[in-house]
Amino acid sequence: MKVSVIIAVYNEERYLRECVDSVLDQTFRDYELILVDDGSMDSSGQICDSYSLSDSRVRVIHKKNEGLICARKEGVESAKGEFVVFVDADDWVEKDFLEFLVEEMELNKADIVALGCMREEINNTMRIVNKIKNGIYKKDKLINEVWPQMLYYQGFYEFGILPYLCNKIFKRNILADCYVNVNTDISNGEDAAVVYPYLLKINKAVICSESKYHYRIHKDAMTARKDANYYSNVANLYLYLYEIFKKNEYAEYLIPQLDQYMRKMVWQKEPESFIEAENYLFPFDRVVKGAKVIIYGAGRVGKTYLHQIRQIAYCEIVLWVDKKFELYQKKGYEVYCPNKIAVYTGQVDYLIIAIANILVAEEVADNLSANYGINRDKLIY
Question: How many beta carbons lie within 10 A of that of residue 122, not counting itself?
Answer without folding.
Answer: 10
